[in-house]
């Protein structure tokens, strides 16, 4: 059963990384003046795929071992996961995503990405924590069945 929960976590992470990247791009493009491309920038999909695919299998093991998780604990987990996923996807994930899409690191502002990624991760916590709580709460209900 534990292996099945890890597999559920991996599938959930992959599916919701795509959904989260799509939603983020759609909202960002709308706020910037209009949707120019339906799928948006493909580097963002690559940047969130790895942290989501790691986070949810780990959470599935945790939820498998802890049957009753309080609401306070879910919020704490959500805050930690939101920060770590935002930090990774805003720094290393963005660099890897751009490297995959562009084919090299020549055109990537690595220093700027490493400086501004943590700043964005901190300033976006009021948005990312509730979103993470929504996803993790849904995932907790799926895994605890």
Summary?
With about 140 residues, this protein is mainly alpha-helical.
Describe the protein's architecture and organization.
This protein is mostly helical. It has one domain. It has helices at residues 2-31, 42-65, 71-90, 92-102, 110-123, 125-143. Helix 1 runs antiparallel to helix 2 (42-65) and helix 3 (71-90) runs antiparallel to helix 5. The chain starts with a helix and ends with a helix. This is DUF2798 domain-containing protein. It comes from Cytobacillus gottheilii. Keywords: Membrane, Transmembrane, Transmembrane helix.
Q: How is the secondary structure organized here?
A:
Elements: H1 2-31, H2 42-65, H3 71-90, H4 92-102, H5 110-123, H6 125-143
Helix pairs in contact: 1-2, 2-3, 2-4, 2-6, 3-4, 3-5, 3-6
Organism: Cytobacillus gottheilii
Protein name: DUF2798 domain-containing protein
Transmembrane segments: 42-62, 74-97, 117-140
List keywords for this structure.
transmembrane helix; 81% helix; 145 residues; globular; single chain; mainly alpha; DUF2798 domain-containing protein; membrane; 0% strand
């Amino acid at each position: 059963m534990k292996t099945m929960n890890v597999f559920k976590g991996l599938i959930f992470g992959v599916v919701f990384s795509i959904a989260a990247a799509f939603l983020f791009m759609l909202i960002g493009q709308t706020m910037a003046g209009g949707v120019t491309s339906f799928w948006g920038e493909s580097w963002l999909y690559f940047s969130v795929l790895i942290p989501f695919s790691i986070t949810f299998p780990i959470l599935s093991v945790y939820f498998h071992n802890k049957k009753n998780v309080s609401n306070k604990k879910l919020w704490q987990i959500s805050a930690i996961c939101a920060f770590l996923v935002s930090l990774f996807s805003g720094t290393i994930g963005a660099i890897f995503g751009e490297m995959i899409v562009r084919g090299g690191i020549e055109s990537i502002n690595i220093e700027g990405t490493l400086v501004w990624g943590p700043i964005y991760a901190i300033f976006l916590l009021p948005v990312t924590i509730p979103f993470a709580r929504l996803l993790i709460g849904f995932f907790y209900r799926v895994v605890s069945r």
